[in-house]
Structures are given as structure tokens and as C-alpha cells.
């Protein structure tokens, strides 16, 4: 059986060095074992029957034909769920298997395990379901007035932020409405995993996920098993970006394995994957900015409507984030935010990189440009004038106590040289339309756009967020154990770098991430560097302290005269020199720490409270060549400045900035799940387009701003999400600059530019 | 499932005769997508990869014959690209380099998608399709071969063995519009080719109708408007009128990739640009 093994992280790299990922070369060579590569003797293949209808009553389910098929081991429906019949990330409102009603296209109804994946698929096709279809609730704007599609109603969360004097008016006001389409995380490794029944009546689940323990708790509840009988191990993850925070096949796989007594493997197809995970919330936003004549923001009003789709997932947290960061990184003394997320029969939405702040950043940055234009002010100057600083109060009443070098982020990016405008471009790949040869350089207009964004790090609103890590040193070799899900963010190198930095050991091994240790929390919210990095930091520090105490005891000296430097415990006077190898060969040391960040508060009825731990700030500047007549765009240049607290691994930081930026560019120009009457029209990578190499110029990093953040390990902030937030508005601002069009919706489609009324008379 | 791998065209014809409903496998870039997605479950497959005859081509005085098994990578450069520049331009827009190494001209025809990248060029070059079976060979114009979206006149037991196109004297242009810089399915594609010998212009349109379309009125207008003997350059007014007539020939629909309105608009823009490039 293939199963996760200890990762040797290789040679010792310290903090600040570009430690290479141990899985990097294997992934490039196709040798890395992803969750879809799991294999076991006698294993069965699972498959899922999904509803073709977004809204229907289930009148009957007939599994007899499927059960009778040779090779089929079992067919399960809602009646076979042993425990709690529903699951959910924050609240169990989604049936494990639908029994009476389906609320979105693709909702799971029945499961099959068979001896061959094709047999399983055929058996799924042989299940007869009689539906009574209903008109889907597709428009979030009417959701609150519509018949509830779920016993819990169509309102998921309504949140109001009232801050300052709401009667104040600005001399200059600008208003705008904005819309964001449904983006998909578009990870390359589809959902996959394997469940194996264990001898104690429990189950072992190997799965690609973002948070092992929250999966375990949901699985255990649905299986009616105690949590100690459900053991999860992280299998190789092919990207996540939020889409693996919710349970997909976890309960299903375990049900099939426990029923058949055999290992069961499941791999979603690409098409099924689009129905198997949550997406980024589509949103409709209205804003009114008020400023005085000098450009100081006086007040901002906004209304946010997010479409949560059929089930809650993390919608309540997403809308809170959207509301809290709705103003952008600016000082807004008076604010009124009315934020709502509703239930519809559209695909369920939940976590995706940027988590609510992406949607609002698109709107507030368009508003800032509009405001600058109305004031006759330079757009950069307006942002600098209003930039948040430490000590400033957010619209939630929270005062920024950590770092917030917003002005420096803006200044460094604005100062970065622009690419030259060439006299001619003849290579069609460097023109809008690319290899399709649609556009000549004479058809092109160039535009420049600028945007700034921010969001929170770690979990908010009073959530007791923690991670657990164990560091053991035996014979000078350190082993780190942590349930942190490596989904590409880089814990695999940071765990080693942090341990090496503190203990000076030459080798650090990383044990498999599983539920045999306490929770590490989710790999989301830009939190793992801070939280699991912090836990490893604390555990390694505890090991150091233990070693120093041991030497102090043995040598009869005070611990204050001892230090651990480069793997040697030595006294300040140089008389004691004992290596960590020697010390831990005699007696290994092991320390386990549960690391919590500073507590946060819930938001009160006015949306006020110290709800967040820390904030990260980023900015992008985009240069686009636009063919206005065809509405085609080539992104010429994209530059960023980001503040990061402290750089722990420059190469990985660059990777996060590039990837995050690319995902934001995708939202600006092409990435959208097209939903028509609650049905997904493009569940494939043929029609859900993501940027290729030709769509992405090399990211220009104007500045990485390092101001150590209090409370974070080595002062490092998470960097996973911030670059996604500001790249979308920067690209669209460049398109507006080139075309003079309002462009209030993303992704911008060619017809939005080419068929705009402003051009039709040309 | 049985997979037959004939070595010669004759063997392939017999295989197709005895398995008339077999799926034909050339580059596999369409077929395998359907198989992997579960939309097609082949019972019998005839693999055409080992048949050397299908990979041959010849460039004659007036007509070019291209074997159905010639890949887009081959069409994109070299002799064939010189003889049929617009076809080469279209070939370079097919998928990625890996796809172009595998995908064949015959496969593009066999699939018969309205968005097939080679089809508008073939239409403009008066292509005929050679179909072979144990009963013999027939050659039909492309307009008879393509009968609807993803529907062709290929009969059970028949193989597409070659395509014949005009070899022209004159500039050619092909433009394909998609919403990504590469590796994208066509939203609109336009081929415009000129023949100085016959003083004619032909237009082929892709993804704006159920089958590849021509634009006869635009072609007639251009042939008339162009000063074939003197300085061959077109003025703005000619481009505008040409664009209008080409646009009128399009019969686009709304789908998840674009709207009919935008497709019609872009058809005209691309036509004008192609004409401008041909007669600068």
C-alpha cells in the first residue's frame, strides 16, 4: 500500500534563506504521490450519483439495478448514514446524501463501491431517481422574499457595521455599483482519497484536505463513531485555495469502506470536481464615498449582497470579512455597511483565497479612482492621503496595534519604473488576442491601473485559533510533528527552517500530518506560517530550554550563562561546549506545544469589536494593452509591493506573490463559473479558462516591505492571500484607463468593452 | 473493447467495413477527451496511427492534397505552410504544442465542430474531402461534408483519407478570436484568401454558424473593389463595406462562450483587419 511517509527536508536552511521544497522536484518530475495515486490491495472504487437538477423533490430512489450489477459491492443512500445526517464547516446544514429534496445541481444522492471505476460509474448511471423538478431560486436579490429553500431559511447572515457619525455628508460624493462573477479555485488535483476500515471498528482516511481535524469531527459525527476511531492522514494535495476546507467525499468514502469492509478509493473527474467543492461568492455591491474638498474620506456607505448558494459552508465568515475590509486600507472615520449573504439554488460558495476581501477590493478601488477623478486629484495621492497607519481605528472600532506600512507599500510601487511603450509589436503573442492574430499594434490602446488591498491574518471574531506541534530531537536529528496541511503554502520548508534556526540541528524530518496529534487548524486565512510556524517555533524553543536546563543541572551552572548556538550548548565564558548531537544521543528531548494567537472579540450589533489578529497589505499596478474594438486584452506588465512582516523564505514568498497575483488576474479577465438558471454551463477546463503562461507576464516585485509583526514567529505575516486581492482591481483599472469605460463587473468579457455603447457609434 | 491497428489503408478499410460503428482514433485529442469525460464509451476502436499513407501530402500546380493523418505541427511550418499560409496560421492556434504534435487535419474534420480551427480556412480554399471505404473512394466538397454541428457526411465504414485544397497565388490571412492568449476554443474565426490569378477573394468563417460558412457577397464585393492590376491596397471604405457584408454572412448563436451579438460584431472587425493585412 502506498501511504504517506516521513519527509526528509534535506540540508539545513535557516530563516531568510530560499530553502527548496522537498516535494518540488518530485512534483516537477511526476513522481510525487498525490491523493489520486493512493492504492491498496483489494480496494474498491467509489462513485457518486449527483442530481442533474438544481431544485427538485426526490420522489423515489431505486438502487436495485445498480446493486444487481456484477462487480458492485454496495450502493448507499441517505438511509445508510450511520450518524448525523448533515455536515457543514461551521454549521451542519448540508445532507450527507440528499433524501427528500435537492438544492443545487450536483448534490450527492447515492454512493456506489465497485471493483472497477468504470463499473462504479455504470452502476451510478443505473440508479433510478424519480424527481419532481421545481423552479430554482437563482437570483440572490429576491432570495429573502422567496419561499425558503431550506428549513433554516434563505438568510445566512446579515451584518451591519455602524461607525462614527452616520449623518455627516462629504462635499464630494461618488457612487457606484459593482458585480463579481463566481470564481473557482481551479486546483489541478481533483478531490480524491481512500478510506480503510480498521480492526477496532473505526476507519482510516487518507485525504487531500486543508484541515484534518475539522474533517475528522464531521466524519465522526456522521458515522456515529468516537473521534478516536476516525484517523485522518493528509494525502498528497494538488492545490486547495479554499476549495478543500469543506468536506467533499470524506464521509462518503468512510461509509463505503465501513459497509464493505474493504479499502475504498474515490477520485472525482474534472467535471465532477466543479460540483464537488464550493466556489468564490458572486457578489453585488453598492458604494457611496464621501470626501472633503481636500480628498480626506469623510464617510463611506455600502451594501454588500453575496450569493451563498445552497448551503452555508463558511458564508457567515466570508460576509463578515467582506464587511470588515469593505473600505480598503484607508482611514474611514464614519461608515455604514449593510452586508447580507443569502441562500439560493446556485452552487454553494465558501472559502477562496482572499475570503470576502477580493469582492470588496474590486469595488472600493474603483471607487477610489472615481473619487480622485471627481476631486481632480492624482489617484496615488488620494490613496496616500487616506492610507491607514498604526494607531488608526478601523471601521470596526479596532485600533491597529501591529504594523501597517500602507503608505510605503503605495509609494514603493508607484516609484517602480513602468515598462516602455514600444514603437511596434509584431509578435502576435505579445498583442491582445495572442496566437489568434486578431490584433495589430495600431489597434491597441495602453492603460495603467493601480490598486491597494488588505485583509486579516488568522481566524477572527472570537474564534480560539490554535495549532499544535511536537519537536523531538534524537541524536541531533530533529523530527517535527504537526497536523498542518501542506497544500502548497510552504510549511514543509518553514517547519525545517524554524527548527534549524532555533536548534542549529543539521537535519530536520517532517512526520506525516495526521490526527494523532492535536489540531493545527486550517491551512487558510494566511494563518499557517503564523500559527503552525508559531507552534513549531514554540516547541523548538521548549526543546532548547530543556537542553539548556539539562546542561545547567549537569554542569552546576545557572541557565542564564548558557546559550544554544549553531547546535552547541555553550557557556558565555566558553568553558562549556556540548553539541546537541551528544546531548540528545544520551537522552532524546521531545516537547509539544499548543500555540494560540492573541484572543479576538466577536462583533457587536453595530459591527464593532477587536475581531482581528493582524492585517496584511498589498498593492498592484497593471499595464494593459487593450484592443477596444474587439475587447481583447493583453496584460503587459504587473508589479506589486507587499508588506510581509519578515521574509522567511524568499523563493516561496515569490511563489505566493506570483500565484496569488495570477489568480486575481484570472478573475479580472476570464475566470468565471457561468451559472444559468442555477445550472453550471462550463464545468471543464475547456470552458472555465485560467491564465496560461502567455497571459501572465513575469511578476515585477517592486518592494517587499519588512516590519516585524508583534506576536508572529520571527515577525512574519502570512502572504498567501493579500496578492490575490489587489491584482484584480489593478487590472480592471488599467482597462478603464485604456478605454474610458466604467467596467463595473468582473471578469471583464470582450463584449463588455467592444459592445459598450460608447464604442457603438464609431 | 477491441482496438484494431491496421498497417495499410486497405486493412483500415476492411476493419472499418467489418466494424462500421467503430470509433476512429488518430491523434486522440478529441476522442480521448470524450472517453475520459465518460461522454463516449467506445466498443471498438480503429487506430489509424500506423498507416503511413495517411501522413503523406503533395503540392500540385493547382491543388494541394493533405493526408488525413498529417498533424497540425506539420502543417504549421515548412513546405505546407508556404503553400497554404492561412492553414498554417490556423494550425498554430490549435491547442498547445503537445496537442499540435498529435492532432490531425482529418480528426478536425471528423469531429466537425463549428469551432474547428482548420475548417474556415478549408472552406475558403474550396476544400474537398476524400472518403475511402472498401467500396471505393469519393470526393465531396467541404460544404457537403459538414452537414451540421459535429455532424458530417462520413458514412459508417468510411475513413477520411485526405483533404484537397486550392493552391493560390496571393496573400492569405487567418484570425481566431478567443478569450485567452492561446489554448482556447474559437469564439469567432475568419479566413480571407486572395487569388491574383483568378482575381478573387474568398472568405471562410468559423464558430459563427452550424458549419463553416463562406461570405459570397463579401467575396464578390472585394473582387470588384480591389485594383488587381495596380497597387493592391484597400481603402478604409472598402474595408468597412467588406466587414459589413462578411458580418451579414455570419449566423452566430448565444452560448456560454460568447453572445451572438458580439460574434457578429467581431466577425466584421476581423474580416476588415484580415483584408487590410492582405492588401496593406
Describe the secondary structure blueprint for this structure.
The complex is a heterodimer of chains A (762) and B (280).
Chain A: E1 7-8, H1 24-29, E2 44-50, E3 56-62, H2 64-67, E4 72-76, E5 86-87, E6 94-95, E7 101-102, E8 108-114, H3 117-126, E9 128-133, E10 155-163, E11 172-180, E12 192-197, E13 203-207, H4 212-223, E14 230-234, H5 250-260, E15 264-267, H6 270-276, E16 283-291, E17 297-307, H7 315-324, E18 335-342, H8 357-375, H9 379-386, H10 406-415, E19 445-457, E20 466-474, E21 477-482, H11 491-503, E22 507-510, H12 528-555, E23 562-565, E24 568-571, E25 577-579, H13 580-586, E26 589-596, E27 614-627, E28 632-643, H14 650-669, E29 675-676, E30 679-680, E31 699-705, H15 722-739, E32 745-746, H16 750-754, H17 757-760
Parallel strand pairs in A: 2-15, 11-32, 13-14, 17-18, 21-22, 28-31
Antiparallel strand pairs in A: 1-22, 2-8, 3-7, 3-9, 4-8, 5-6, 10-18, 11-16, 12-13, 12-15, 16-17, 19-27, 20-21, 20-26, 23-24, 24-25, 27-28, 29-30
Helix pairs in contact in A: 4-5, 7-8, 8-9, 8-15, 11-12, 14-15
Chain B: E1 2-4, H1 9-18, E2 23-25, H2 31-36, E3 44-47, E4 57-59, E5 63-67, H3 72-75, H4 79-83, H5 85-91, H6 97-102, H7 105-111, H8 119-124, E6 128-133, E7 136-141, H9 142-145, E8 146-148, E9 151-152, E10 159-166, E11 172-177, E12 188-195, E13 200-206, E14 213-214, H10 216-225, H11 236-249, H12 260-278
Parallel strand pairs in B: 1-3, 2-3
Antiparallel strand pairs in B: 4-5, 5-10, 6-7, 6-10, 8-9, 11-12, 12-13, 13-14
Helix pairs in contact in B: 10-11, 11-12
Helical proportion of chain B, percent range: 25-40%
Radius of gyration of chain A (CA) equals 27 Å
* Quantity of strands of chain A, as a count: 32
Q: Look at the helices and sheets of chain A and give the structural class.
A: alpha+beta
Q: Estimate the strand proportion of chain A.
A: 25-35%
The CATH topology of the largest domain in chain A is what?
Aldehyde Oxidoreductase, domain 4
Tell me, rounded to a whole number, the average pLDDT of chain B. 96
**Helix share, percent of chain A:** 25-40%
Largest sheet of chain B: 5 strands, antiparallel
Q: What would CATH call the class of the largest domain in chain B? A: Alpha Beta
Tell how many strands the DSSP assignment of chain B holds: 14
Per CATH, the architecture of the largest domain in chain A is 2-Layer Sandwich
Number of domains of chain B: 2
Q: How much of the residues of chain B is beta strand, in percent?
A: 15-25%
Q: Over the alpha carbons, how many angstroms does the gyration radius of chain B reach?
A: 19 Å
Amino acid at each position: 500500500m502506498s501511504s504517506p511517509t516521513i519527509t526528509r527536508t534535506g540540508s539545513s536552511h535557516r530563516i531568510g534563506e530560499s530553502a527548496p521544497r522537498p516535494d518540488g522536484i518530485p512534483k516537477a518530475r511526476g513522481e510525487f504521490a498525490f491523493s489520486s495515486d493512493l492504492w491498496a490491495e483489494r480496494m474498491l472504487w467509489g462513485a457518486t450519483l449527483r442530481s442533474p437538477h438544481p431544485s427538485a423533490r426526490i420522489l423515489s430512489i431505486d438502487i436495485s439495478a445498480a446493486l444487481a450489477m456484477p462487480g458492485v459491492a454496495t450502493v448507499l443512500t441517505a438511509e445508510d448514514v450511520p450518524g448525523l445526517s448533515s455536515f457543514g464547516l461551521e454549521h451542519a446544514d448540508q445532507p450527507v446524501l440528499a433524501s427528500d429534496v435537492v438544492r443545487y445541481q450536483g448534490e450527492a444522492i447515492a454512493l456506489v463501491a465497485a471493483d472497477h471505476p468504470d463499473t462504479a460509474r455504470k452502476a451510478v448511471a443505473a440508479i433510478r431517481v424519480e424527481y419532481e423538478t421545481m423552479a430554482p431560486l437563482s437570483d440572490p436579490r429576491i432570495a429573502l422574499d422567496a419561499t425558503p429553500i431550506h428549513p433554516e431559511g434563505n438568510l445566512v447572515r446579515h451584518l451591519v457595521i455602524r461607525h462614527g457619525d452616520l449623518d455627516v455628508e462629504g462635499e464630494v460624493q461618488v457612487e457606484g455599483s459593482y458585480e463579481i462573477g463566481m470564481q473557482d479555485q481551479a486546483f489541478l488535483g481533483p478531490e480524491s482519497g481512500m478510506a480503510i476500515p480498521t480492526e477496532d471498528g473505526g476507519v482510516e482516511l487518507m485525504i487531500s484536505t486543508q484541515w484534518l481535524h475539522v474533517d475528522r469531527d464531521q466524519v465522526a459525527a456522521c458515522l456515529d463513531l468516537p473521534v478516536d476511531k476516525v484517523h485522518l492522514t493528509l494525502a498528497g494535495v494538488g492545490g486547495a485555495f479554499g476549495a478543500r476546507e469543506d468536506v467533499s467525499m470524506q464521509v462518503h468514502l468512510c461509509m463505503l469502506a465501513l459497509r464493505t469492509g474493504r479499502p475504498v478509493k474515490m477520485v472525482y473527474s474534472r467535471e465532477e470536481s466543479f460540483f464537488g467543492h464550493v466556489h468564490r461568492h458572486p457578489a453585488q455591491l453598492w458604494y457611496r464615498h464621501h470626501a472633503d474638498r481636500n480628498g480626506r474620506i469623510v464617510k463611506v456607505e455600502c451594501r454588500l449582497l453575496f450569493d451563498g448558494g445552497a448551503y452555508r459552508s463558511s458564508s457567515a465568515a466570508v460576509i463578515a470579512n467582506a464587511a470588515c475590509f469593505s473600505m480598503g486600507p484607508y482611514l474611514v472615520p464614519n461608515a455604514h455597511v449593510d452586508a447580507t449573504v443569502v441562500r439560493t439554488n446556485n452552487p454553494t460558495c465558501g472559502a477562496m483565497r482572499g475570503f470576502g476581501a477580493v469582492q470588496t477590493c474590486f469595488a472600493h478601488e474603483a471607487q477610489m479612482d472615481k473619487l480622485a477623478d471627481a476631486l481632480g486629484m492624482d489617484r496615488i495621492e488620494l490613496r496616500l492621503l487616506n492610507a491607514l497607519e498604526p494607531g488608526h481605528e478601523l471601521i470596526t472600532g479596532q485600533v491597529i496595534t501591529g504594523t501597517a506600512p500602507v503608505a510605503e507599500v503605495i509609494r514603493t510601487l508607484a516609484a517602480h519604473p513602468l515598462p516602455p511603450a514600444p514603437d511596434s509589436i509584431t509578435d502576435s503573442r505579445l498583442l491582445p488576442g495572442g496566437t489568434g492574430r486578431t490584433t495589430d499594434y495600431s489597434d491597441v490602446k495602453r492603460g495603467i491601473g493601480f490598486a491597494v488591498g488588505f485583509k486579516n491574518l488568522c481566524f477572527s471574531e472570537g474564534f480560539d485559533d490554535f495549532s499544535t506541534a511536537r519537536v523531538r530531537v534524537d541524536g541531533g536529528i530533529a523530527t517535527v510533528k504537526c497536523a498542518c496541511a501542506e497544500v502548497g503554502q510552504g510549511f514543509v520548508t518553514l517547519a525545517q527552517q524554524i527548527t534549524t534556526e532555533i536548534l542549529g540541528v543539521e537535519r530536520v524530518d517532517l512526520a506525516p500530518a495526521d490526527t494523532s496529534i492535536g489540531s493545527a487548524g486550517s491551512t487558510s486565512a494566511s494563518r499557517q506560517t503564523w500559527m503552525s510556524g508559531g507552534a513549531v517555533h514554540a516547541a523548538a524553543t521548549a526543546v532548547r530550554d530543556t537542553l539548556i536546563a539539562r546542561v545547567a543541572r549537569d554542569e552546576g551552572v545557572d541557565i542564564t550563562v548558557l546559550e544554544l548556538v549553531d547546535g552547541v550548548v555553550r557557556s558565555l565564558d566558553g568553558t562549556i561546549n556540548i553539541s546537541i548531537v551528544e546531548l540528545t544521543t544520551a537522552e532524546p528531548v521531545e516537547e509539544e506545544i499548543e500555540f494560540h494567537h492573541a484572543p479576538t472579540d466577536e462583533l457587536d450589533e453595530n459591527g464593532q469589536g477587536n475581531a482581528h489578529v493582524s492585517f496584511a497589505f498589498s498593492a498592484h499596478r497593471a499595464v494593459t494593452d487593450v484592443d477596444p474594438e474587439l475587447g481583447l486584452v493583453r496584460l503587459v506588465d504587473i508589479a506589486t509591493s507587499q508588506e510581509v512582516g519578515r521574509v522567511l523564505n524568499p523563493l516561496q514568498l515569490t511563489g505566493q506573490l506570483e500565484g496569488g497575483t495570477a489568480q486575481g488576474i484570472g478573475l479580472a479577465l476570464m475566470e468565471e463559473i457561468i451559472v444559468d438558471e442555477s445550472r453550471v454551463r462550463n464545468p471543464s477546463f475547456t470552458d472555465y479558462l485560467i491564465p496560461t503562461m502567455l497571459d501572465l507576464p513575469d511578476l515585477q516585485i517592486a518592494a517587499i516591505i519588512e516590519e516585524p509583526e508583534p506576536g508572529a514567529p520571527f515577525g512574519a505575516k502570512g502572504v498567501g492571500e493579500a496578492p490575490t486581492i489587489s491584482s484584480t482591481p489593478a487590472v480592471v483599472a488599467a482597462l478603464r484607463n485604456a478605454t474610458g469605460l466604467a467596467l463595473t463587473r468582473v471578469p471583464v468579457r470582450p463584449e463588455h468593452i467592444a459592445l459598450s455603447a460608447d464604442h457603438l457609434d464609431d | 473493447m477491441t482496438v484494431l491497428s491496421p498497417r495499410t489503408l486497405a486493412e483500415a478499410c476492411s476493419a472499418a467495413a467489418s466494424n462500421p460503428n467503430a470509433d476512429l482514433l488518430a491523434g486522440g485529442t478529441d476522442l480521448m477527451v470524450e472517453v475520459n469525460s465518460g461522454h463516449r464509451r467506445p466498443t471498438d476502436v480503429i487506430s489509424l496511427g500506423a498507416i503511413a499513407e495517411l501522413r503523406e501530402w503533395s503540392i500540385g500546380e493547382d491543388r494541394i492534397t493533405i493526408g488525413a493523418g498529417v498533424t497540425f505541427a506539420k502543417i504549421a511550418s515548412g513546405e505546407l505552410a508556404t503553400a497554404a499560409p492561412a492553414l498554417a496560421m490556423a494550425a498554430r492556434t490549435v491547442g498547445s504544442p503537445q496537442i499540435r504534435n498529435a492532432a490531425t487535419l482529418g480528426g478536425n474534420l471528423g469531429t466537425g465542430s463549428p469551432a474547428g480551427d482548420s475548417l474556415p480556412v478549408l472552406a475558403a480554399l474550396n476544400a474537398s474531402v476524400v472518403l475511402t471505404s472498401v467500396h471505393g473512394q469519393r470526393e465531396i466538397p467541404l460544404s457537403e461534408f459538414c452537414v451540421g454541428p459535429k455532424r458530417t457526411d462520413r458514412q459508417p465504414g468510411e475513413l477520411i483519407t485526405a483533404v484537397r485544397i486550392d493552391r493560390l497565388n496571393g496573400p492569405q490571412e487567418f484570425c481566431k478570436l478567443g478569450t485567452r492568449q492561446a489554448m482556447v476554443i474559437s469564439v469567432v474565426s475568419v479566413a480571407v484568401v486572395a487569388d491574383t490569378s483568378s482575381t478573387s477573394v474568398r472568405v471562410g468563417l468559423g464558430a459563427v454558424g452550424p458549419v463553416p460558412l463562406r461570405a459570397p457577397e463579401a467575396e464578390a464585393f472585394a473582387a470588384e473593389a480591389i485594383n488587381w492590376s495596380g497597387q493592391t491596397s484597400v481603402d478604409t471604405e472598402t474595408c468597412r463595406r467588406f466587414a459589413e457584408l462578411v458580418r451579414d454572412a455570419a449566423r452566430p448563436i448565444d452560448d456560454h462562450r460568447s453572445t451572438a451579438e458580439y460574434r457578429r460584431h467581431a466577425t466584421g472587425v476581423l474580416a476588415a483587419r484580415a483584408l487590410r493585412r492582405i492588401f496593406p
